[in-house]
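Q&A FORM
Asked by: J.P.
Topic: structure of Polysaccharide deacetylase

PROVIDED:
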Amino acid sequence: MVKRPITCGVMEFSEPSRRRLLWTLGAVGFAVAVGSDSVRGTAEASGSGASPQTPTAAPAPRTPSPSPTPTLPGHPAWRPVRVRRYKEAITNLDQLDPARPPKTISLTIDDGPHPKYTPQVLDLLAEHQVTATFFVVGEMVKEHPALTRRIVEAGHQICNHTMTHPMGFDRIGGKRIHREIAEAHARIAQATGVVPKYFRSPGGAWSRQVMEKVAEYGMIPIGWEVDPWDWRRPGVARIKRALLRSKDGAIMLCHDGGGDRSQTVAALREVVPRLKKRGMTFVPL
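REPLIED BY: S.T.
REPLY: Here is the structure written out as C-alpha cells.
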C-alpha cells in the first residue's frame, strides 16, 4: 500500500505526520475547551463576562443585620429613659441607696476641668490615694477633652453640671434646662465613654422642671452638706475650717474651675490627710 501524502494548505504531510498532527490538534482542542470553561467559571464568579448557558436559581434575598443600638447620649438614636424623680437633692451619703458605710465622706469638685487647677487636684488626690467626684461643665469638657478623660482614667467619678453653668438655673425655662442637661450629657459621654449618673444644678438651684429632666436622663440630683464657699476665695484658713467640720456621710463641695482656685488646692493639701488620719474614708457617690 502506497502511503499518500496529505495536503494541508501548501504543506504536505505523510501518514505518520498526519497522526501526530491529529493527536496534537485534539490535545489543543481539549485544552482550549477546559480553559474556556475555567474562564467562564471565573467570569460567572466575579459577575462579569457572558451569562452561563444553564440558568441557575436566583439566590434567596438576604435580610440585612441591624446596626447596634447606640448607648451613648448625643447620638440621634439615643433616647433618655425616665426613672425615679427625687423631690429634693441628696446632701448626705446616708440618703443614697444603698447607704455608704460608716466613717465615709465624699469630696465633690465642681466647674472644671480647668487646665491649671484640675491637674493639681488630681496629683494631690493621687498622692493620698483618694477618689473624688467631679461635676464638670460641658463647655469645659469641649475645650479640654483629654483632661476630662484623665479624670476618668485616674478612677474618679464624673458627673453632669450643665453645659454652660447658667446661674438661676431653676428660672431659665424648660427648653433651656433640657438643652443644658442634654448637651453636657452628650459631651461627657462622647469624651469619656461614661454616661453620667449624677447631676448638680449650678448654685444648687432646683425646681420641679429641673428634677423631671434629671430623672428623664436617669440621673440622681446631688447637693452638698459642707460648703466652704471656696469659690469666693475667703482664704485658705476658712476653707480648711469648714471642710474639717465634715462628719460621717458628708458630701463636701469644692471647686477646681470658674476662677482662681489656688486657695482650694492649698486647703485640700492639709484637709485630705487630716481627715484620713481621723479615720474617714473618701468614697465616690
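FOLLOW-UP: The two ends are 114 Å apart (CA to CA).
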